[in-house]
Every structure is written in structure tokens, then in C-alpha cells.
Amino acid sequence: MDILINQALIVTMNRDRAVIPRGYVAVREGKIVDVGTGDGLSKYVSEEVVEGGGTIVTPGFICAHTHLYGILLRASVWFGVIEPPTDFQQNLQRIWWAVDEAMNYEDAYASALMGAAEFARTGTTMFKDTFSGPNAIDGVLDRIKKGVDEVGIKGFIAFEATERRSRDEGLRGLRENERFISRYNSDPDELVKGVFSLHASFTVTDDLMVKTKELADKYGARYTMHVEEGLIDVYHNIERYGKRPFERFRDVGFLSPNFIAVHVVQAIDDELELIKQHDVKVAHNPMSNMLNAVGVPPVPKLIGMGVTVGLGNDGYIFDVFENMRSAYLLHKVHLKDPRAMPPLKVVEMATIDAAKVLGVDGHTGSIEVGKDADITIIRPEYVPTLVNEETVYGHLVNTFNGRDVWGVLVRGRWVTKERRLVNVDMGKVMEYVHGVAERLWDRMLKMEPKYKVEYLKL
Ligand SMILES: [Zn+2]
Q1: What CATH number corresponds to the domain at position 53?
Q2: What separation in Å is there between the alpha carbon of 65 and the centre of ligand 1?
């Protein structure tokens, strides 16, 4: 064996959701080759042995929706100079579309480096990202890929095409995704691949949606879009098309099992039925929904209907444990029902269900023989109560945080070990990225704050 994780508590997330209280995981050539109970050393000789007293082993966590570039805006001075947004639309106008305009190629690379480092440090081994920026389109995905590859985790990346400013820009975004997908998606050795991405239904035409769906079909790729995050999305569609967003999608043939709808906060029951009928996947971002004050999506209802929902962070907080905790709590307070969102379901949304959302559950998302060795090793310094097979989901959701992550394997290679990133020097990354963020903020401060954005008449 290359690596044997031994005598640890193993949360497999396999079909039976088996938890092994004292077991082992054997890794060879990047794959999980055995998972069992007891002392693995009585069975195997291994080059490296990770002894597991007090160790919890989970599948590498998966983020179903992020924006790596969001990390550059953390605690930005920009928030102090603009008139605070009062709703979702103003949030886009005053914050996100200003960031987009200021984004350059170096920002794309630096944020990918820092975002991937944050993920790796806190236990996430795979994500789906979409980048936006009208001044950094052609070739930008190569820069993002470079940042992620330097850290060593897996990801799907995309340029978020939008026709908000012009039709041509939308097509350029789509072409960038096609270029990247045609180059990387069929290579089994690549860790970073592509998906197609559109911003939101109120900033794209039917034509761009149809073209995106055709290309996604051609390459067998996932495609994603923010849907009904704010009410503007609903009103825009009703005003221009006389239909709610999912009705419009159905009528242009946009719905399919490869579509990842992000947010669906405002969706009504008829639309949930369409999601279910077409096996559309959903990415849920509870911390972003709270931050942007857009409302709470009907996630427990979707799950009850059998829709696959994965947990995302929407570019906000990268620590999966904080996102799980938020998903766990948000629906309880919203529905005034403490039974909403049991811990196991929350962990599923961040592992095997997120893998299903991204279409990669055949090789990651659980600890099972034959899958890639994408594994997170948690070693909390302190736990208030017993951790065992009955309590572990409760602890994953209530107790642990990203700082408890001791190690992360991606395809059997250490990305984080002994709480430190293996492939990059975090001190140097921080120094570099802080400088990049400062320059980005300077550029934004020189911009005229835009309190109104002219729309293309879609
Ligand atoms: Zn998003």
C-alpha cells in the first residue's frame, strides 16, 4: 500500500451510510483499494501509515457552487464607501458588478490560488466555480486552473457568460467555456475540468440558453445558472416572457439532468415539479442566502421530492463545516420545525449528494473501494462528548470546524498534512494575494460607484 489510514473512525457515506468505529482505509496508486474493520496493519504493509487514535475520516468534502474570486472581496474597504445595498439587485449593482468590471487576469489566478488553499486547508477536495469579469474572458480559465493545480485539489471551473452588457460578451463567455472543456474534460489525469455557466435568466436571452444547452449536450458537460436568487429574476421573466423562470426554461428545452440550478430561493411548487420531472440538480448556499438577505429556498421540500441537492458556498465562507452548520440551522428557524434537516442529510449534501450534483459520484464523494482516494482526515484537539458511530454526524455538523482538519488527500496525494498545505507555502500565498486584493480594491475605489446599470434589452 501507499498509504494506510488505520484504527480511525470512518464515515464512508457509501450506499448503506456505514460508519466504521475502528477501521482502516488502504490507498494505492490514487485509489481506495480496501476499507475494513479492525487493524489494517495485520493485513497490509504500507509505505506510510496514519495511525488514527481520535481521528475521524470522511470523504473529501465537495462544494457544489462557489466563486473563487469572491475571496478577494473578504472584508473589502469597498463595503465602507458604497451606499449599502437594500436588496439583491442593488447588491449586484453596487458590489458584484463593480468587482466584475475591475477583475483582471491576475485577480483570477490569485483568487483561485487562495480559494483552493482555503478549501484544502478546511477539508474540501472538490468544487464547482464560476468566474465573472468582462475584462478577463478569453483564456482566463487557464489562469484559474493554474492556481487550483498549484494547490492540488479537484474542481470544475467556468466563465459565467452574461449578456448584461452585450450579446457579443455572452458569446465570448460561452466560447471560453467550450475552449476549456474541449481541451481538458476528456483527459482522465486532469484534476481541473470545465462546465458551462450562465449568470442568471434575467441577464441572458433564450438564444444563449439554447446554445449553451447544445454545447453541454455535445460535450456531455454539466451547465449551471443562478435561478431565482432574488425576486428580480421572477419579475423579469414574467414581464418579458409571461412565464416564471422554470416555465421559460422548459419551453426552450433548457432543462435536463445536467443542469445545476443555483439557489432557487423564490421557486414555487409548480417549478419544483419541473425540477423533479427533468432531474435538474440544485446547489444550495445557505450562508450566501443569509448574507444577501434573499430568503430561504425550499430545500427540505426538494429533498423530500427526491431532488438531488448539493451544498455550496457561493464564494462566501469556504469552511465546509460552517456551511453545513448553517444548512442545519437555517431551515429549522425558517420552517419553525426542529426536525428540518437532520445531520446525516446535511453531511450527504456536502459529500455524496454534491458529487451527484456534479456528476462525479462514480469516482468520488464516498469512501468506497475503486473510488479516488479523496479523503479528509479530522483530528479535533478537543471534543466535548464522545465521538462514535452514533454521534459522528452530530459532531460533523455541530462540533468541528475547518481548523480541526489535519489532512486532505486528493487521488491519494497529500494536499494538506499536519494542518499545513503541502504544495504551496501559505505564508507566501498570503503575502502575494493580499497585495493583489489591495490593488483590486484600489482600482474599484477609482471607479464611479454605479447605482444604476443599463441593461441590454433582452
Ligand atoms: Zn453564485
Answers
A1: 2.30.40.10
A2: 6
